[in-house]
Design goal:
This protein is mostly helical and about 260 residues long. It is built from four helices and two strands; from the N terminus they run H-H-E-E-H-H. The chain has a two-stranded antiparallel sheet with strand order 1-2. Strand 1 (about 95-105) and strand 2 (about 105-115) form a beta hairpin. Helix 3 packs across helix 4. InterPro entries: V_ATPase_D.
Length: about 260
Amino acid sequence: MSGQTQRLNVVPTVTVLGVVKARLVGATRGHALLKKKSDALTVQFRQILKKIVSTKESMGEIMKTSSFALTEAKYVAGENIKHIVLENVQTASLRVRSRQENIAGVKLPKFEYFTEGDTKNALTGLARGGQQVQLCRAANVKAIEVLVELASLQTSFLTLDVAIKTTNRRVNALENVVKPRLENTISYIKAELDELEREDFFRLKKIQGYKRRAMEEQLAAAKGFAEEQVAEKVSLQKGISVNAAHNLLSVAMEKDEDIIF
């Protein structure tokens, strides 16, 4: 139906009406819950967006500091500082692990860094530039912290964006399609049931009228038969004709007198 919300193709009965009403109640509750979920996700989405903006603003300064620290370390310790560091480092001391955080039924991935093993090596930069190497290491550790936090926020941001869009589509579908369709179906069933009730009432009235007329006809026929029997009896007893007996009975009925046989 163009320009109108369609209704379900159902049989208009009381049972179906109860089922559709139950579905409407479920759709209303589901719409309310999804709306609350969408609001909660939107609040979390905005908070993450603010954190992303602040983290990106601080990341520029931190990355600049780490870059200058690396340049200073190379200047003090020499260009071969890279080979010296790689020789003294066996395994990575900073690692990243992931976990999940549940926000209104949506699982958001969270990344966090942790240290494992010895984080310092006293032999690195022992010849020269040891202090600058340690400062460079601290600056780059700070940069890694910011990058891990930003990666966590960006991943949560994208996940929430998809979840909010999906939830809003469901909310709009329930609000603009499912609920109006169920309401139109309920209105249609009620109208059909009212029409059937009026038809039943009209049919019962007609049947009562037919029965009343049939009963009146039977009573009239019985009365005529009784009058005919009485007229024949009076004509035999009085020795008059049947028509005269009828006239006599009519006069007696008008005067409300009893006829003596």
